[in-house]
Write a structure and sequence with these properties.
CATH superfamily of the largest domain: Nitrogenase molybdenum iron protein domain
Oligomer: single chain
CATH architecture of the largest domain: 3-Layer(aba) Sandwich
Radius of gyration: 21 Å
CATH topology of the largest domain: Rossmann fold
Number of domains: 2
Distance between the termini: 37 Å
Number of helices: 13
Strand order of the largest sheet: 4-3-5-6
Structural class: alpha/beta
Length: about 300
C-alpha cells in the first residue's frame, strides 16, 4: 500500500512538471534533454549494474571490457575509451556513460562524439549520500525516475535491517578493523567513503580514523609506521580484493613487521570482493552482510 501510494504521487508529480529534463554531471556540465535515452553504452561496471537493476537491459547496447555482472552483460559488445570515434558511432548510441577519470583523460574523444550528436555523461559518487543523487540521475536520464526511487527505498530498508541487527551487539564487542584499499601503498579508505560505510553498518570500528584522503579520492594513504602503531588495536585486518588491489592473505601476513599486528597473530586477516564494498550499487547491502559475517561469525 505504501509503495502504491508513492507511485500515484510520483506519477502526478511527473505529469505536472515540464517535459525538458536537466542534470549536472560530475564534471560540472549541465546536460539538458527532452526524452529518455534508449541506446546506452556504459563504460563503468557500476553504471551497467545499476541500469540493469532499473530494468534497462534492452537499452544497454555496449559495456566496458571485463564486465561480468549481471551475466547478461557477457553478450554485449565491449567498448574502450581508447577505441576510435568510428567504433562508437557505428553502434549508434544516444548516450555514453563514463566516469570523471575518463572525462579528464579522453576529452578529445568525448568532444568528437558530442559533435556527432552523442550525449556523454560523467558520473561517479564518492559517498552514500551522493549515491542517492547518482541513482536519481540515472533514473532521469533513462525515464526510470520511479524505479530509481524504489532502489533508494529498498536500499535504505536494507540499511535499516543491518542497523537493527547491529543494535544487539554492544559497542565493546565490536572489533577494531584496519580496512586496506591498496596493499602496495599501505593505504586505507577516506572518511565518508562507501567501504567505511559498509564497515560501520557491519559492526566494525575503524582504527584508521586519522587517515587523510588522497587527491580528493576515496583512497587514503596511511603508511607502515602508523599502521604498526595501531597494530595492537587491529582485531581484524580487512582488505578489498579486485582490480584495484590484487592481494592475497599471504601478502599481508608476510608484510614488513606484520607480526606486530594483532589480527595477523590471531589469523584474522580476510579479503572481501571490492565490487561489494567500493561500487555504488545495491550490492553494497551484500557487502554489509559479508563483512558482518566476518566480524561476528
Amino acid at each position: 500500500m505504501k509503495r502504491l501510494l508513492f507511485t500515484l504521487v510520483f506519477v502526478l508529480l511527473l505529469c505536472s512538471t515540464a517535459r525538458a529534463r536537466t542534470i549536472t554531471d560530475d564534471s560540472g556540465r549541465t546536460i539538458s534533454f527532452d526524452a529518455p535515452f534508449t541506446r546506452i553504452i556504459s563504460l563503468y561496471g557500476a553504471h551497467t549494474e545499476n541500469l540493469f537493476h532499473l530494468g534497462l537491459d534492452k537499452q544497454v547496447i555496449g559495456v566496458s571490457p571485463g564486465e561480468n555482472y549481471p551475466a547478461a552483460v557477457l553478450s554485449r559488445p565491449t567498448f574502450n575509451a581508447r577505441d576510435g570515434v568510428e567504433k562508437f558511432l557505428a553502434a549508434k548510441p544516444d548516450l555514453i556513460l563514463i566516469r570523471p577519470m575518463h572525462w579528464r583523460a579522453y576529452g578529445g574523444l568525448w568532444n568528437a562524439l558530442a559533435r556527432h550528436g552523442v550525449t556523454v555523461v560523467s558520473l561517479q559518487p564518492g559517498s552514500i549520500d551522493a549515491v542517492y543523487g547518482y541513482w536519481r540521475a540515472l533514473g532521469k536520464l533513462t525515464g526510470r525516475e520511479m524505479q530509481a526511487e524504489y532502489m533508494i527505498e529498498d536500499f535504505r530498508e536494507g540499511v535499516r535491517r543491518a542497523e537493527n541487527r547491529l543494535a544487539t551487539i554492544p559497542m565493546g564487542e565490536r572489533p577494531g578493523v584496519f580496512f586496506e584499499s591498496i596493499h602496495r601503498k599501505i593505504a586505507t579508505f577516506s572518511p565518508g567513503s562507501m567501504p567505511l560505510f559498509v564497515l560501520e553498518k557491519a559492526g566494525g570500528v575503524n582504527v584508521a580514523t586519522d587517515a587523510k584522503p588522497r587527491h580528493g579520492t576515496n583512497i587514503a594513504n596511511y603508511g607502515l609506521e602508523r599502521l604498526l602503531a595501531k597494530g595492537g588495536r587491529i582485531d581484524v585486518y580487512l582488505a578489498q580484493r579486485g582490480t584495484m588491489n590484487d592481494v592475497s592473505v599471504q601478502d599481508i601476513v608476510n608484510g614488513p613487521a606484520a607480526s606486530r599486528i594483532r589480527a595477523v597473530l590471531t589469523r584474522n586477516v580476510f579479503l572481501v570482493d571490492e565490487h561489494l564494498v567500493s561500487r555504488p550499487t545495491m550490492r553494497l547491502l551484500k557487502g554489509i552482510d559479508t563483512v558482518f559475517q566476518i566480524l561476528h561469525p
